[in-house]
Write a structure and sequence with these properties.
The protein is mainly α. Helix content is about 65%, strand content about 0%. The chain is built from 14 helices and two strands. The protein has helices spanning about 35-45, 50-65, 90-110, 115-120, 120-135, 150-170, 170-195, 205-240, 245-255, 270-280, 285-300, 300-305, 310-320, 325-340, and strands at about 135-140, 145. It has a two-stranded antiparallel ribbon. A hairpin with a 4-residue loop joins strand 1 (about 135-140) and strand 2. The longest helix is centred in the middle third of the chain and has 37 residues, at about 205-240. The model is unreliable at about 15-25 and about 30-35 (pLDDT under 50).
């Protein structure tokens, strides 16, 4: 097993006084005025039942790791001695429980010191499961050791995932500001590591790589939104160039292709239909002027299919009839015919 495991070594048959190992031994790792480590683990695992399931599995693995037939020759089990310290299994309980408590406090404080991990409940739950998986029991020896290197990597990965989640929830510019500030901090730490020839315990280079990738991703998003804005602006500009002849041709081709009814078919008459149309579509003109232009194209083919209408028909084909294939086909035929007319 190529893992660097750490734990508490206890001498065989160590004499001890049983105490609550949590309060004094781990005081430096517990934040003031906060709940105990087990309460934090319950919170991290989302439900008390999840916590009980993990605790039960841990206890079962602990008992399975004890030396075989440990009860044999145990003065306490035979009833010859009553002191807790006379149990053959007690040293194993102390070693395993102490190791668990110590690294549980370590783990809780890592989480509480990284609010982005703590605030991401999904990633925190997955990370807490990984924390339990970092304990390695040695069967027949009754001891447990902890893979601290793996936990640090799991925490780093959970941090990256939770930061990614947070960056998605805020404005792009705010995300860039956060990343730039953090990169400055990491640059300073990297310089200090070089000056004092310190080992990179905080994976500075890996953090910088992650943040630079996020920076590039956000910049691509910003560029995309900029392009999208320009496209919308361009479309809006195109819309503002639509003239009354364009509208008249547009509705004519829709009517001729059976997409909409002729104005004459309106129950209240042609002029009312035109008035209703220009109001609904926010066309800036009067019903009388629109009718005049429309009638010119509708009732006089030579006015519609003419060389001076090539630009108008082309505009309607390319910008207004994209969603109406039959109308577009008719307009293209007339555009081709109009191009052949004498000026």
């Amino acid at each position: 097993m190529n893992k660097k495991l750490v734990g508490f070594e206890l001498p065989n048959k160590m004499a001890y006084i049983k105490t609550d190992v949590g309060e004094e031994l781990f005081k430096p790792y517990k934040k003031a005025n906060q709940k105990g480590v087990n309460e934090w683990l319950k919170e991290f695992l989302l439900t008390e039942q999840n916590y009980k399931d993990f605790k039960k599995e841990f206890e079962e693995l602990k008992i399975k790791s004890f030396p075989e037939n440990i009860e044999k020759g145990c003065a306490f089990c035979r009833g010859e001695k009553k002191g807790e310290g006379e149990k053959n299994c007690e040293n194993h309980h102390v070693q395993i429980d102490t190791t668990f408590s110590f690294f549980a406090y370590k783990f809780v404080n890592i989480v509480l010191s990284n609010t982005h991990i703590y605030n991401s409940k999904k990633e925190l739950y997955k990370l807490t499961k990984k924390f339990y998986e970092c304990f390695y029991f040695f069967k027949g020896k009754g001891v447990v050791y902890f893979d601290l290197d793996s936990l640090i990597k799991h925490c780093l990965n959970a941090g990256f995932l939770s930061i990614s989640e947070h960056l998605k929830s805020i404005e792009l510019i705010e995300g860039i500001e956060i990343i730039n500030y953090t990169l400055d901090t990491l640059d300073q730490e990297e310089i200090e590591n070089d000056i004092y020839e310190r080992e990179d315990y905080n994976f500075v280079m890996l953090q910088k790589k992650f943040l630079l990738n996020k920076h590039n991703s956000i910049m691509r998003d910003i560029e995309y939104k900029k392009i999208e804005k320009e496209v919308l602006k361009s479309k809006k500009t195109d819309d503002s160039k639509i003239t009354i002849p364009h509208y008249a041709l547009y509705y004519y081709y829709l009517q001729e292709s059976d997409y909409i009814d002729y104005f004459e078919n309106h129950p209240q008459g042609k002029l009312y239909a035109i008035e209703e149309l220009i109001e609904n579509d926010s066309i800036k003109t009067t019903k009388n002027y629109f009718q005049k232009v429309y009638n010119k194209f509708r009732h006089y083919k030579t006015n519609r299919i003419a060389h001076n209408q090539v630009a108008n028909i082309s505009f309607v084909v390319n910008t207004m009839l994209s969603d109406y294939p039959k109308a577009k086909e008719l307009a293209l035929l007339e555009l081709k015919e109009a191009k052949t007319k004498n000026r």
